[in-house]
């Protein structure tokens, strides 16, 4: 089943094209990684997919429900109630965690399921404790974000996104704010989610990780999809920009 479809997406900032006619789809249970040089439009694509940025052209659908489309050259979005339902289909994990500093770990995870989804408190707390156990953070439910390492904060952010039971989980460079040791912790958690067949779209600079975890990889360059296919196909392709891009990683 197709969970997400994006057709002919265009996005400009101050008249400069950042996304040029991007089309992609994501199927249930699939792990899609999006790679490419800085400024290629990867994070903007994710922000358009999650309605954090308005598109300038094209259309977006979740489970067949139109989430955005264009009429007479302008972006159109559904009414509030319908939009709320569409937004419940996905979760988003940011590179800078975005935890509420004045909330405990438990409140960060349970607040939206209780107040937005109107679910029973006892059920939500039970689920949150299971998620914290999965993240290796059972002893941190009463801690506050300032008491956590970067890796722990990102694992709480992942638990918070999962607590909403999304159909699809987006990661925007989830390890870019972490040092190498903490990066390993977070990648291990994301890998464990792939084993549970959770549908994920991951913007990442971790090439080996993208290669090993993905069903499909998209290489973006200058606002277009320059290459798309299986990890083996994309990483071994004789594509000039891809080879240059990978070469920079091997130099670091």
Task: Please provide a written account of the structure.
- This protein has 252 residues and is α/β, with parallel strands linked by helices.
- It has a domain at 2-89 and 166-251: P-loop containing nucleotide triphosphate hydrolases (Rossmann fold).
- 38% of the residues lie in helices and 28% in strands.
- It has 9 helices and 11 strands.
- The chain has helices at 42-49, 80-87, 105-115, 121-134, 150-162, 180-195, 207-213, 231-236, 240-251; strands spanning 2-13, 16-27, 31-35, 57-62, 65-71, 74-76, 90-93, 168-172, 199-203, 216-221, 224-229.
- Helix 6 (180-195) links the parallel strand 8 (168-172) and strand 9.
- The chain is globular.
- The model has no long low-confidence stretch (mean pLDDT 93).
Helix count? 9
Extended strand count: 11
CATH class of the domain at 2-89 and 166-251: Alpha Beta
CATH topology of the domain at 2-89 and 166-251: Rossmann fold
Helix content: 25-40%
CATH superfamily of the domain at 2-89 and 166-251: P-loop containing nucleotide triphosphate hydrolases
Compute the average pLDDT.
93
Backbone structural class: alpha/beta
Label this structure with key terms.
11 strands, alpha/beta, 252 residues, single chain, 5-stranded antiparallel sheet, Rossmann fold
List the helices and strands and how they pair.
Blueprint: E1 2-13, E2 16-27, E3 31-35, H1 42-49, E4 57-62, E5 65-71, E6 74-76, H2 80-87, E7 90-93, H3 105-115, H4 121-134, H5 150-162, E8 168-172, H6 180-195, E9 199-203, H7 207-213, E10 216-221, E11 224-229, H8 231-236, H9 240-251
Parallel strand pairs: 3-9, 3-10, 7-8, 8-9
Antiparallel strand pairs: 1-2, 1-4, 4-5, 5-6, 10-11
Helix pairs in contact: 3-4, 3-5, 5-6
């Amino acid at each position: 089943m197709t969970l997400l479809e994006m057709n002919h997406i265009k996005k400009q900032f101050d008249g400069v094209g950042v996304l040029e006619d991007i089309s992609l789809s994501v199927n249930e249970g699939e792990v899609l990684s999006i790679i490419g040089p800085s400024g290629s439009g990867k994070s903007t694509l994710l922000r358009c997919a999650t309605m954090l940025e308005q598109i300038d052209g094209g259309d977006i659908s979740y489970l067949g429900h139109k989430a955005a489309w264009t009429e007479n050259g302008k972006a159109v979005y559904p009414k509030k109630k319908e939009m709320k339902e569409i937004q419940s289909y996905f979760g988003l994990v940011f590179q800078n965690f975005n935890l509420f500093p004045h909330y405990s770990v438990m409140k960060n995870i349970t607040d939206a399921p209780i107040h937005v989804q109107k679910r029973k408190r006892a059920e939500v707390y039970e689920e949150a404790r299971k998620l914290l156990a999965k993240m290796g953070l059972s002893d941190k439910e009463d801690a506050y974000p300032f008491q956590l390492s970067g890796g722990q904060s990102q694992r709480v952010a992942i638990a918070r996104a999962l607590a909403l039971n999304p159909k699809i989980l987006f990661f925007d460079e989830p390890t870019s704010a972490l040092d190498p040791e903490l990066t390993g912790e977070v990648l291990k958690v994301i890998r464990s989610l792939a084993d549970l067949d959770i549908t994920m779209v991951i913007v990442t600079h971790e090439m080996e990780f993208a290669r090993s975890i993905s069903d499909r990889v998209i290489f973006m360059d200058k606002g277009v999809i320059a290459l798309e296919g299986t990890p083996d196909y994309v990483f071994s392709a004789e594509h000039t920009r891809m080879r240059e891009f990978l070469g920079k990683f091997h130099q670091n």
